Every structure is written in C-alpha cells, then in structure tokens.
Amino acid sequence: MSAATHSSRPLSVRVSREKECADNSMVEPMSPTGRVMEELGVCIVVVIGLGTPVNLPVFRAGIETELLTRFPRFRSIQVMDESTNNGKPRWVQTPVNMDDHIVVPRLDPEAVASDPEKAVEDYVASLSLLPMDRRRPLWEFHFLDFPSSEAASTVVLRLHHSIGDGTSITTLLMASSRSTADPARVPAMPPPPKRTGAIYQREPRPPLSSGDYLALLAWFWSYVVLAWHTLVDVAMIVATILFLSDPRTLFTRADGVEPRARKRFVHRSLSFDDVKLIKTAMNCTINDVLAGVTSAALSQYYFKKSGDTNMKRICLRSLVLVDARPVSTRQTYVTRVETGNRLSSLICPFNIALQDDPLEYVREAKRFMHRKKSSLEVLFTRVVGEFLVKKFGVKQELLSSAVLWSEQPSYFQMPLDQLNIWRYVGTQLPSWHLVSTVRHKL
Question: Polar residues bias: where (predicted)?
Fold first, then answer.
C-alpha cells in the first residue's frame, strides 16, 4: 500500500439540482457530526481475530454482498457541493474497485515468527501514518494471515469516522455475521440495557387529589435539581471552550510534537464475570466499574511513569462519548442498520490518585456518573454542536463502550474469536474503548 500524499479534503464538484432530485439515493448531505469527523480526520480501526486462516476469496465475496449492499457509505465518496455558495460536503455514490480496498501486506517473516502479537500491533500502529485516498470510498481491509496467541488470523478494517460511528459500524458487522451454532441466523444479542436516571425517565406527577404534598414537593424538587445540574454543566462547557484547562501531565501532548505522530493501539482482556460481580456487589452499572478500572489503571501508570512522590489528587477531565440513538435492542439495530454519526458527549472528572481501597475508584466513578444522569448536558452538547457546525462550520474539536453479541459469531463462514475497536485523530490524547463480547478459545 502506497503512502503517497492524497488530498485531505473532499473533492470539489458541482451537483446539479436535476440530478439530486432525480435520484436522492445517489447524493446525500453529510451530517454535522460527520462534518466534524471529516474536518478532524478521525478514523476508526477495527481488529477482527478469526478462528481459522483467512479465506480471501470468500471474505472478498462477503464484503461485496454484505457491506457494499447494506451500507451505501461503503460505496460513496465525499464531495463539496459547489452549486451553493457555502459549498457543503455531500456523499455521492461511485463505482467501487475492490482491488483498491483489499490489502495483503508483506511483513518481515522473522519478526512475525518471533513475536506475532507485536507484528500485528506494529502494523496496526503504522496505519495511523498512512493517508486515505479521498478519490475512492474511505475504507480498506488489511489481511494478516498468520496465527497469534489470540487468533488464527487477523483482519484489520480501517475506515473514516465520517462513514459512521462505532455503533453503526459494529451493528453493520453484527448484521453481516452469522451464528456459529446456526448459520441461518444472526448471533444472539444481549438484552437491552436498563436505563435509569433523570435523563431517561421522569417520575410522573402525583395527582393533586391525593393530598400527598411531600410527594408533590419531591417531584417538583427533582426538576429543580435537573435544571441546576444542567446549568452547571453548560457553564462548565462554556468555560472549557473559553479558558478552563486541565493541569499539564504526561498524558498531555507536548508542544512541538508532530500531530500525525505514530499512534499505538493496544488491548487487554478482562473477565466480564468479574466485572459483573463487582457491579452487583457495589450496586452500580457496568460502565461505572469500567470507568473505575480505567481510573485505577491510569493512576498506577501515572505515578509509576512520572516518579511523582506527591500523592495529591490530580483532577483531569475525560470526554465520554454517548450514543444518541433511542434505547433499543441490538436485534432491532441489526434488522435496521442506521448509517452515519449520532453521537453526543459528556465531560466527566477523571481523578488521578492512589487509593488504599481499589474499590474507591469505582465508588468515585459511580458518584459522578450518577450525577451526570441528572443533567441534560448530553442533549445540550448534541443540539448546540450541530447548530454551530451548520451555522459556522467546524473550528475545533476518550472513553467509550459498546456491547456486542452474546454468543460466538462467524464472519463470512469463518468463526470470530476477537474484536477490538479504536478511533484515532492526529491531535488526539489517549483514548479508551471498552468492548464486550463473548470470548472463545481457539
């Protein structure tokens, strides 16, 4: 694959009104969130570990029949519509040459034989330095057909984030897979999550005829708290944009560092049963546990790496991405794959400290996540963000999680044993992506 320089901006074309009206499926406006991703150059990397060696002809045929058919963005390019004064970006469908999107790299045989896991990690990291050719659809599959400790072969999907967010991409992958036990159906999905908190459901107003004035006062007070928390969160967002910043730490990108410096993509596996055990014991959510584990790991890493003997608490902030789609079962998502980006975000505190009790990290995560559920910050950031992009364009700009299938799937007749997802951007600080799948040993 060549690393030749390609344009980092959408192609400029003139889209006629007649063509747009004649076939709306061929021309699609880019969403405000998609424009943000396009401007920042955010990409998604999906590492798929297969339980068998890659059958390239079968996999290629599956891409053509499943991905290209189900997802129009996989056969579209980004263009600038010059028929209007502001030249808004759009998606225009184009013929796809599969040879441009299939990459079988030649790696050093000695490096692969001595440490196949590092060979996979180094190759995935090298993709962050390679530009994407905007003259064709912004996705590509890379095939690493050698065994590692976690898979018999590895497939790497790299695509531009403007094509879709993590939910739409993983849903597409789920819709394209089949159950290993019954190839006639898609793999079973976990039950829909139970959403609690003020942003998900409000307590109904007690009837006035009941005479329970304490219940009426509590109902009214819940709205006062919701409004206050939202006001505080909005003020923090405005302050962050204008002047408020976190203290400089080793997690902060140093001045003078090349924005397109090579990224590292690493993963670690946790026992989901252990996570659920802590969740049940502490009466919290899985996301609370994972946020606490991440905070604990970063704290240990910081004090070990920096050699800092000052054990005072360092308060950083993290941007937690939130799927803005309505709560639904994954089975519904699979039968109706939604395209594009529907993301919002929350600014959450992320404390770096050494705790005597490891569970204290989970308790802190539970407190601030519960607090965020009593605020409309996530709705504000999405609505205001889309308004600013529509009116003024993109000026500037992690922790995310996804729950996938609950039984082993097969992908184009090849069992899937591992799936990891990352996103990266040139100026990005460290980010963490939490994916829950059923783990199967080879």
Answer: 1-10
